[in-house]
């Protein structure tokens, strides 16, 4: 299957993408991984992306699209892929359609993870990260440390990242609504959108997504 995964920040796209890709035996292709791989490998597109990023500018659509096309052309994506974080806007969605059409393939579904805005804010703004080891993550509601402000694993101080503040989260949601959400309507006109609730436990959401993709809604 060829799938695009969409949803607001905090919807659990990365987590669900990993599980869905494994269940469907297709590669999980994320924008972040594309950038890291191309930059670390020193590809021409990676050099272009790094130059823009180093200058504090957004990477142009054509560079991101070029990376995605190269990745989708690799042998492990021959029978499908799951795109996470791309396309981010309608112009990228249109460019993706052109690229797929050139290879005589098309998308099978656009999976829309739906989460109420207040829940998104609660999920992200409640995160607390360990200063000693950022892989130790807690949550003031869903995964409380035994001692407030102290990491259960190593005793490090827990803090809220600046990116996780409520004001920042709401600004990120505004960007999502303005730039990314319109691609849902774009794909809906093609009959590709499958919307599911992303509330509940991870395995519950994964099952809901798998059932929806198989048509068992």
Automatic annotation (TrEMBL):
Under PROSITE patterns, the record lists: ADENYLATE_KINASE
The record's annotation in InterPro entries points to: Adenyl_kin_sub (IPR006259), Adenylat/UMP-CMP_kin (IPR000850), Adenylat_kinase_CS (IPR033690), Adenylate_kinase_lid-dom (IPR007862), P-loop_NTPase (IPR027417)
Q: Which residues bind AMP?
A: 31, 36, 57-59, 85-88, 92, 161, 172
Q: Which reaction does this enzyme catalyse, per its entry?
A: AMP + ATP = 2 ADP
Q: Which Gene3D superfamilies match?
A: P-loop containing nucleotide triphosphate hydrolases
Keyword annotations for this protein, in alphabetical order, are: ATP-binding, Cytoplasm, Kinase, Nucleotide biosynthesis, Nucleotide-binding, Transferase
**Cell location:** Cytoplasm
- An annotated Gene Ontology molecular function: ATP binding
**Where does the Adenylate kinase active site lid domain start and stop, copy by copy?**
127-163
Pathway it works in: Purine metabolism; AMP biosynthesis via salvage pathway; AMP from ADP: step 1/1
**Gene Ontology annotations of biological process type:** AMP salvage
Sorted alphabetically, the Gene Ontology cellular component annotations on this record are: cytoplasm
Please, which domain of life does this record's source organism belong to?
A: Bacteria
EC number(s) from the headed UniProt entry: 2.7.4.3
Report residues binding ATP: 10-15, 127, 137-138, 200
Q: Top-level EC class, please?
A: transferase
| Pfam families to which the protein is assigned, alphabetical | ADK, ADK_lid
**Family stated for the protein in its record:** Belongs to the adenylate kinase family.
> What NCBIfam families does its record include?
adk (TIGR01351), PRK00279.1-2 (NF001380), PRK00279.1-3 (NF001381), PRK14527.1 (NF011100)
Function, please? Catalyzes the reversible transfer of the terminal phosphate group between ATP and AMP. Plays an important role in cellular energy homeostasis and in adenine nucleotide metabolism.
Question: According to its record, what is known about the domains?
Answer: Consists of three domains, a large central CORE domain and two small peripheral domains, NMPbind and LID, which undergo movements during catalysis. The LID domain closes over the site of phosphoryl transfer upon ATP binding. Assembling and dissambling the active center during each catalytic cycle provides an effective means to prevent ATP hydrolysis.
Assembly information from the UniProt record: Monomer.
Q: What is this protein called?
A: Adenylate kinase
